[in-house]
Design goal:
two-stranded parallel ribbon, Leucine-rich repeat, LRR (right-handed beta-alpha superhelix), Biglycan
């Protein structure tokens, strides 16, 4: 029964999106937002996720590429040293797993006849070239995982049915205008680990997209991109070279629930910058160069988690986290991390954390130079 695991993983994946991905299948784990249900967290339509397998034609059980495992419309051809996409793939296949091979090119007819394909896994190959019509037959494709390859551009003519694109750890330097044109169902793009600079995003590159989740971590960004979809609920820009958050950097991202800016070089967050994020629940600013707690946190009524560890913060004021007065904050903090900062913790007043659920939610720690 072991070939069922890729399909089981996709079932889990369709429910939520991750904050930190450590391995290929780790993003199937939901670290969740406690204040959201699954539909809100993922932004996905629960009626259009996993295909209705019972409505598909009977399985062509006699068709299975040599060396692959085929069961219940899942074709698993991973870790076989394949140089090309195999033939004899059943037309009713819904999940095709080709990860961990040596495929270098996707040709025009590689997926011909696979009109029922729901998920395509091409992770960890050597793909550097994709024919412009290679994805044309995939009219029902919703999930495309093509990370850890040698791509220098985002593939053209992606299927209009696509919901999720994982293309991190490639060699992409440019996101041209129109590359996502017509992808009205797309709600998740993971494109970290590419050598993308701010200038690599052409104006209008994300026009028309209504994304829920975007990750551009481990790139070469020096500032927050200003032309990303305003529909975003999660934006992850960790492990970049961002140095400051200026006043209007977050102006168009008022729907964010979670913002990841850890492991950057941020020294300054301009006063008022965070006021554009009224629905923010979680803020990651750890491993930066901040010298004080960012202004404006008490005004974020829904904020529950703040990571500020491993900065240069020397003082924590009594009103840095909580608003003055009662009944103003709608959700209490359940996580504040301040360890690895040069703060004399014995000088921090207990009232500083009056809007925290309990003292175990506060993480102090020793500071080592």
């Amino acid at each position: 029964m072991w070939p069922l695991w890729p399909l089981a993983a996709l079932l889990a994946l369709s429910q939520a999106l991750p904050f930190e991905q450590k391995g290929f299948w780790d993003f199937t784990l939901d670290d969740g937002l406690p204040m959201l249900n699954d539909e809100e967290a993922s932004g996905a339509d629960t009626t259009s996720g996993i295909p209705d397998l019972d409505s598909l034609p009977p399985t062509y059980s006699a068709m299975c590429p040599f060396g692959c495992h085929c069961h219940l419309r899942v074709v698993q051809c991973s870790d076989l040293g394949l140089k090309i996409v195999p033939k004899e793939i059943s037309p009713d296949t819904t999940l095709l797993d080709l990860q961990n091979n040596d495929i270098s090119e996707i040709r025009k007819d590689d997926f011909k006849g696979l009109q029922h394909l729901y998920a395509l896994v091409l992770v960890n190959n050597k793909i550097s070239k994709i024919h412009e019509k290679a994805f044309s037959p995939l009219r029902k494709l919703q999930k495309l995982y093509i990370s850890k390859n040698h791509l220098v551009e985002i593939p053209p003519n992606l299927p209009s049915s696509l919901v999720e694109l994982r293309i991190h750890d490639n060699r992409i330097r440019k996101v041209p205008k129109g590359v996502f044109s017509g992808l009205r169902s797309m709600n998740c793009i993971e494109m970290g680990g590419n050598p993308l600079e701010n200038s690599g995003f052409e104006p209008g590159a994300f026009d028309g997209l209504k994304l829920n989740y975007l990750r551009i971590s481990e790139a070469k960004l020096t500032g927050i991109p200003k032309d990303l979809p305003e529909t975003l609920n999660e934006l992850h820009l960790d492990h970049n070279k961002i140095q400051a958050i200026e006043l209007e950097d977050l102006l168009r991202y008022s729907k964010l629930y979670r913002l990841g800016l850890g492991h950057n070089q941020i020294r300054m967050i301009e006063n008022g910058s965070l006021s554009f994020l009224p629905t923010l629940r979680e803020l990651h600013l750890d491993n930066n160069k901040l010298s004080r707690v960012p202004a404006g946190l008490p005004d974020l009524k829904l904020l529950q988690v703040v990571y500020l560890h491993t900065n240069n913060i020397t003082k924590v004021g009594v009103n840095d986290f909580c608003p003055v007065g009662f009944g103003v904050k709608r959700a209490y903090y359940n996580g504040i991390s301040l360890f690895s900062n040069p703060v004399p913790y014995w000088e921090v007043q207990p009232a500083t954390f009056r809007c925290v659920t309990d003292r175990l939610a506060i993480q102090f720690g020793n500071y080592k130079k």
